[in-house]
TrEMBL record:
It comes from Dictyobacter aurantiacus. Keywords: Cytoplasm, Elongation factor, Protein biosynthesis. The keyword S-adenosyl-L-methionine does not apply. This is Elongation factor P. The keyword Protein biosynthesis applies. InterPro entries: Elong-fact-P_C, NA-bd_OB-fold, Rib_uL2_dom2, Transl_elong_fac_P/YeiP, Transl_elong_KOW-like, Transl_elong_P/YeiP_cen, Transl_elong_P/YeiP_CS, Transl_elongation_fac_P. It holds the Pfam family Elong-fact-P_C. GO terms for molecular function: translation elongation factor activity. It comes from the Bacteria. Residues 129-184 form the Elongation factor P C-terminal domain. Involved in peptide bond synthesis. Stimulates efficient translation and peptide-bond synthesis on native or reconstituted 70S ribosomes in vitro. Probably functions indirectly by altering the affinity of the ribosome for aminoacyl-tRNA, thus increasing their reactivity as acceptors for peptidyl transferase.
Length: 185
């Protein structure tokens, strides 16, 4: 069991009978009343994000997840296929289970798959990933007084704000947690 005082980002708990990962949490002390905890949770099975409030001191069942290395293979409709690198098994996840991670999947990408009692739930991406820009408007020198940005579409369909000097077919490094441009690769 885990108390509200031990909550932190990324911890997986069982909340209202569902497997949930904590995205954000905030401990709030209201004037005369008792303290409460506001949480933003992501349901690991459905991918839905919900906001919940509970009393400080409540306890939840902590869930431990297993991880194994996989390689992304291909997409078939709303199903994404991965191959376990140790057993060569085909693992299928839906678009809802992947959430925003689907915007970073490129062929033969090595990542970790997260399982609960041998049921695949979601994937854990590397912190930074190199993507190719497939389309961006040309940037012209002198358009801004300071360093400006422009939208660029990557090979996965993700749109990222990049500096003006980048053009189509350039490789960029993107932070997978924030979706922001990091540097030229």
């Amino acid at each position: 069991m885990i108390s509200t005082g031990d909550l932190k980002k990324g911890v997986t708990i069982e909340f209202e009978g569902q497997l949930c990962s904590i995205l954000e949490w905030q401990h709030v002390k209201i004037g005369r009343g008792g303290a409460i905890v506001r949480m933003k949770l992501r349901n690991l099975r459905s991918g839905a994000t919900v906001d919940r409030t509970c009393d400080a001191g409540d306890k939840f069942k902590r869930v431990y997840l297993d991880r194994s290395h996989v390689t992304y293979q291909y997409q078939d409709g709303d199903q994404y296929h991965f191959m376990d690198t140790s057993t060569y098994d085909d693992i299928v996840l839906t678009e809802a289970q992947l959430g925003d991670a689907k915007n970073y999947l490129i062929d033969n990408l090595e990542l970790d798959i997260i399982r609960y009692e041998d049921e695949p739930i979601s994937v854990e991406l590397p912190e930074k990933l190199v993507l190719r820009i497939t389309y961006t408007e040309p940037g012209f020198k002198g358009d801004t007084a300071t360093g400006g940005t422009k939208p660029a579409t990557t090979e996965t369909g993700l749109v990222v704000q990049v500096p003006l000097f980048l053009s189509t077919d350039d490789l960029i490094r993107v932070n997978t947690t924030t979706g922001a441009y990091v540097e030229r690769a």
